[in-house]
Amino acid sequence: MFAPIALAVLQALANAPADSIAPDQTNMSTLSATDFAKGMTAGWNVGNSLEAGNTTNGVFVPAETSWGNPLISQALMDAVKAAGFNAIRLPVAWSLFTGDTSKFVIDTNRLARVQQVVDYAFKDGLYVVMNEHWDGGWLQPLAADSAYCDRRLKAIWKQVAIRFRDYGDHLLFAGTNEVMVTNDYNAPSAENLAAQNGFNQVFVSTVRSTGGRNAYRYLVVQGFNTNIAYSVTGFKTPKDPASNRLFLEYHFYDPYDFTINTSNTTATEWGNSAPSAKTAGWGNETYMDTILAQMKTSFGSKGLPMIMGEYGTILKNTSDNPQYRQYWTQYVTGDASKNGIVPFYWDNGSTALQGMGLFDRNTGADDFPAIVQAIISQVPKPTGIATSIAPVGKAWARMRNGLLSVELAAGVSGTARLLDVEGHTVVGEMRIPAGGGAFPVGNLRPGTYYLQIRTSRGTFEQALACWN
């Protein structure tokens, strides 16, 4: 009587994906993280959705619509793409476990739902940065909790990495979120900093161990509480068997009283031109220029590109606030882009007072076009990216009006092909004469494409955007 059950178990085990497979670089960019970042321009957060949930008897249970937002839809992704964003950050709470919860086995329906949302974004050619978010706050940076936290973090990322192992390089994994000791807003201790650095190492090692495309996937790690100052003083780059495939993430909500302090009703304006009585009294343009340039000096200039994973301001109940909210957003976005930082605006879904939403989550309507324009106007379009690759020399390319133009170093020739974000060939082999040339590619669907060039001196890969 037990034979059918035993057979079913054996069949399930046989069909389960292997914990680790051989590395596979198919559809994975060969660019360094710094050069790959040039393909990402404006990012947007699908906040308060897949990381939402309820706490019952001390246990946090993820539930997508529990914080008031509807289910994420393809129409929403379409609207975000149409507005000019080419990347999303997808906060996820993964702790929806089945069976023995001490083994941290993620419910297959949860995995499938997150995968469905990733597919929505991929259909629009969007980059996706997918993380392990707050998730009830179980990830505590304390030595006493380290063994448990490391084991749980490893279990989660092993399952997620295996589930998404076959996805191309437009899917990035981000290990943690704003890790801090619950309700402790003091500067971190050496113990806290060491714990966060340890979490980063567990994340990177776990993802890489699954092999396949994960051996080459771009990964995003964090400083303590994604805080700039604590990152500068306490972050240690984790060891990574893959070279130049890491990003560092920080969040930016300065000055707090103006941006996200819902209790403050006086700091409604920002910047040098605003009356001091209506500002937070600090955190103006000079401060912003200095602190973001510091991130570039500390990390970007040393080969560790940065993602500003969250930034934004709430809407306050005064007539003057919208214009300063727009100005702050424009200035931060521009400063980030100027310093090689990829900005991801935090949208919590609420477009009402004290909300940070840009889009109507039900219809996809752009409820704050001025804010959206403030973002899009400050980021470069991922076209005409000039990148120096030592074996090839300088290469440059762009797509416009159905024509692909390629320029190589003098005397260098080769072949090229154009791929979509899923690695499918769009235009087959094109022979490039010495110095470069132009090729008709037809009326391509707007989106991001990859140009792969091979020459006698080496290879070159570049992300291009078609805006026809």
Describe this structure in words.
The protein has an eight-stranded parallel barrel with strand order 2-5-8-9-11-12-13-14. A four-stranded antiparallel sheet has the order 15-16-17-20, with no helix packed on it. It is α/β, with parallel strands linked by helices and 468 residues long. It is built from eleven helices and 22 strands. The protein starts with a helix and ends with a strand. A hairpin with a 2-residue loop joins strand 21 (447-455) and strand 22 (458-466). It has two domains: 13-376, TIM Barrel; 387-466, Immunoglobulin-like, CATH 2.60.40.1220. Helix 5 (146-163) packs parallel to helix 6, helix 9 runs parallel beside helix 10 (321-338) and helix 10 runs parallel beside helix 11 (369-376). The protein is globular.
Q: Could you describe the largest sheet, including whether it forms a barrel?
A: 8 strands, parallel, barrel
- Summed up, the domain count is 2
Broad structural category: alpha/beta
Radius of gyration: 23 Å
CATH superfamily of the largest domain: Glycosidases
Strand order of the largest sheet: 2-5-8-9-11-12-13-14
**What top-tier CATH class of the largest domain fits best?**
Alpha Beta
Number of DSSP helical runs: 11
